[in-house]
Amino acid sequence: MRGVGLGEWVEIRLHSKTIFNNFTDLSTNIHSRVKQLFFILLLLCSRFILTGQQASFLQEIKQDSALHLYLRQDWKNIEKHKKDKVYQSADVHLVTATSDTIAIPAKVRTRGNMRLEICSLPPLKLKFEKADLQKHGLSPLNEMDIVEPCHDDDTYDQCLLKEYMAYKLWELVSPYYFRTQLLQIHYTNPDGTEAHDPSYAFFVENTEELVERLGGRRNKTPVISSNAVDKEPMLMVALFEFMIGNTDWFIQNRHNLEFVVIPGHSFLVTIPYDFDYSGLVAASYAAHHESLKLTSVASRYYQGWCFPEADVEKALEVFIQQKENILRMPYQIQGLNEKSASQARAYLSGFFEIIENPKKLDNQILKHCDMWPVKKFSLFTSHKPIPILHIIRCGPGDKKLPVFRIKFFNLFRGRASVNPSGF
Predict the structure, then answer these.
(1) Where are the domains positioned within the chain?
(2) Band of residue 254 on the pLDDT scale cut at 50, 70, 90
């Protein structure tokens, strides 16, 4: 349930008994009945407004154009110690398209993995004190991610905007997505000087806010079984990732995928994020995994499961219905220059050339399914070790040392994952 904004209509449907049980004689005194009915509805609407959920910070600042974000903090310190991922104090000053301003103290830290390693402008996490949000009449949802360009250069600004576009494209084909807000970020030092030239960036909704908005619940299992995933939403994810030329995702170890329990779905709904390794974005540092043997990041490689042809065609119909909006999107992204927009449109057009050609569709999607690269590997080859041993029992007389059983392991993107079937 969300809060009711000013100027919004509220529709409340009540079972007839709820209203009319308070009336002893429905056949008389029509005027009195109408007055009582109005009074009941007024009380219910008042309760709805008072108990409705407050708007979040991200909802409050939402606008189509880029917000100006003045982020004042010790930039030299956070960039020098970026691998520490430690919060430091900051001041947030936002200016909207109507020149309204919002000023809230905050904390900022670095986040991420690959971009944290290679980018001079590391990705950030922004966190407010809940009490400060409440002073502004906002909900206590107090965290969000900031995606910045990798480096202080217009080329990387264009890549950033194309990744933002990928999030907006996913919104066209699925109701389950991370909300975003485009920004123009101003890097301000504590003494008021500029640490870097202003650049584009964008907020990404925190998972906690995502699941609350969808009325769902986040699945926190570190390893995801394919059997636990809802097949239809997963098919849409696989087709979308193929459209933007992204292979940087994997189900079992949750790589660049979020899994949410949503009412109406018996299994986990998959929501993708992080698209900087896609062919659509074409970042200079991006590459497909070496096991795919693809020479160009622009090459498409379908990684979806095998489905009946009718199911795939039904899913593709959503993309076809949105074709005009998809191909128009590059020209609607603020800051994306003509060259980048034309390249993005041409790349997206290539997807439709495939799905609208029966032979290409058959070769590149229908028959190119269940093509996950799988390799055997040592326990210590993962980028960041995760618990991968399953305890069966601790028998008597063994000094309570655990007995372990190791199942099947996959290596994808340099990370370890476990196939939990049979555990």
Answers:
(1) 1-52, 57-366
(2) very high
